[in-house]
Amino acid sequence: MKLIPLLLAALPALATPVLAQTPAAPRVAPDQIATKNGPLTVQPITHGSVVLSWNRKTIYVDPYGGAEGYAGLAAPDVVLITDIHPDHLDPKTLAGLAVGKALLVVPPAVAEKLPAEYKKQVRVLRNGQKLDTLGLNITAIPMYNLPEAPDAMHTKGRGNGYVLGLGGKNVYLSGDTEDTPEMRALKNIDVAFLCMNLPYTMDVQQAAQGVLAFKPGIVYPYHYRGQNGLSDVEAFQKTVNAGDKKIDVRLRNWYAGAK
């Protein structure tokens, strides 16, 4: 008779390894931005990674950090990759995601490094080239370090920032860049995602002055962790709004699941 209670007590311990699953990484709540064709949903993932959902289309930008960060999200219709560095081109994360039916939009340098199984899904865009697909307009924007140098971490022409046109809105994704003339010359940007981490991209002042030059309606500082820790996003917000109170600087925790 004493065996039954002992067996029952052991059941939870026996069952735990079978039922255990990898938990989804913590995520901040998504934002919604109105467009002519319904809301644009902005879901921060981590670092330079974001998921955009609009008009029953899902766009993954630089999927990175593990597939668990995308748990519960719709499979992508389009994947945008900006550069060859592992926080942008992450084959391990790609392999864990349902990207089999997605169009991968990439610069030539990324196309050369993608695993062979993705080659048929790739559309290569060079700086300045455009693509219309699935109701989206995609324009590749130069992203690079200043001053230009052959040994720079990001040389001109290798990577792409992107401007997406959707539902009457223009969305800028900076990739890894400094406040280049091409970025400063952008027009009619409704939503911008702007990198801000040393020594790879911009410091707070560079990023703020770049934003004040092209004046997006909304700006999200992202990709703001570097060798020196986290960039001061609150100082960025203060500097931008001191120059232009109309710019909506949205601070979100892009490192909610980071260790």
TrEMBL record:
The keyword Signal applies. Keywords: Hydrolase, Signal. SUPFAM superfamilies: Metallo-hydrolase/oxidoreductase. Residues 1-20 form the signal peptide. The keyword Membrane does not apply. It holds the Pfam family Lactamase_B_3. GO terms for molecular function: hydrolase activity. InterPro entries: RibonucZ/Hydroxyglut_hydro, UPF0173_UPF0282_UlaG_hydrolase. PANTHER family: UPF0173 METAL-DEPENDENT HYDROLASE MJ1163 (PTHR43546:SF3), UPF0173 METAL-DEPENDENT HYDROLASE MJ1163-RELATED (PTHR43546). This is MBL fold metallo-hydrolase. It comes from Hymenobacter jeollabukensis.
